[in-house]
Design brief:
Radius of gyration: 22 Å
Largest sheet: none
Number of helices: 12
Distance between the termini: 74 Å
Number of strands: 0
Oligomer: single chain
Structural class: mainly alpha
Low-confidence stretches: 1-10
Strand content: under 5%
């Protein structure tokens, strides 16, 4: 093959790759995760490197298909390269859902370190309280109720500091909705055989927050455990 033939073939391959890349983006946006995975098998030829954005879509497609082991293989590779909070969070969730809480703890600590090292002018992809909430969900599912409650205690401190519990107010500050936190608290307390209505966690929270939050807690108290 001559020089011109080489570049012609290279451009042809690039056009094919671009078309497949756009197709994967469209399929992922449409939540057609089976098709993303199927199409990804023919993505790049001749050992060409898959762009990180596309690789992440493939990894997350495995995640949403609940194939956490395959998701981990891809998402860990991305996280090691990007080394940012969002990428490691994807790994953390995959580990917890794959029932690997010990490995998840190491990744969670890594995320905390990365988050603490962010400068004040650097964007925070995920609020630390959101991360702690989802980590607590994984710990609860793994039956590690004491560890899950420890994360919820940290989130509780943030509600107490803010006092305001309006959904929009807390969301833009990277804090879970109070209703989500209360739902998780009920699950954790059930696991620990603690009465939700008489727990120190709920009593302390109820005392410190606004009337809107107090009304919500009252509603949850009336529902029972």
């Amino acid at each position: 093959m001559g020089v011109f033939g080489f570049f012609k073939e290279k451009n042809k391959r690039q056009t094919i790759n671009n078309n497949i890349e756009n197709e994967i983006k469209r399929l992922y946006a449409d939540k057609k995760y089976d098709e993303v995975v199927s199409r990804a098998e023919s993505f790049f030829v001749d050992g060409q490197e898959t762009p990180l954005g596309i690789k992440q879509m493939i990894g997350l497609s495995f995640f949403y298909k609940k194939d956490y082991e395959k998701a981990l293989t891809i998402l860990e590779e991305i996280a090691l390269e990007k080394n940012d909070v969002e990428s490691w969070f994807n790994v953390l969730m995959s580990l917890m859902l794959a029932n690997k809480p010990q490995e998840g703890k190491k990744v969670f600590n890594r995320i905390l370190k990365l988050h603490n090292e962010l400068k004040s002018n650097q964007p925070r992809e995920l609020g630390i309280n959101f991360i702690k909430y989802y980590y607590a969900c994984g710990l609860n599912d793994a039956g590690l109720f004491d560890d899950a409650l420890e994360q919820l205690e940290d989130i509780k401190k943030t509600y107490i500091e803010m006092k305001i519990t309006d959904d929009t107010f807390v969301y833009i500050r990277g804090v879970p909705f109070l209703s989500d936190t209360l739902n998780l608290a009920k699950k954790i307390f059930n696991g620990l055989n603690i009465d939700f209505n008489n727990s120190g966690f709920i009593n302390e929270l109820e005392t410190a927050i606004d009337d809107e939050g107090k009304k919500l807690i009252k509603k949850y108290r009336e529902q029972g455990n």
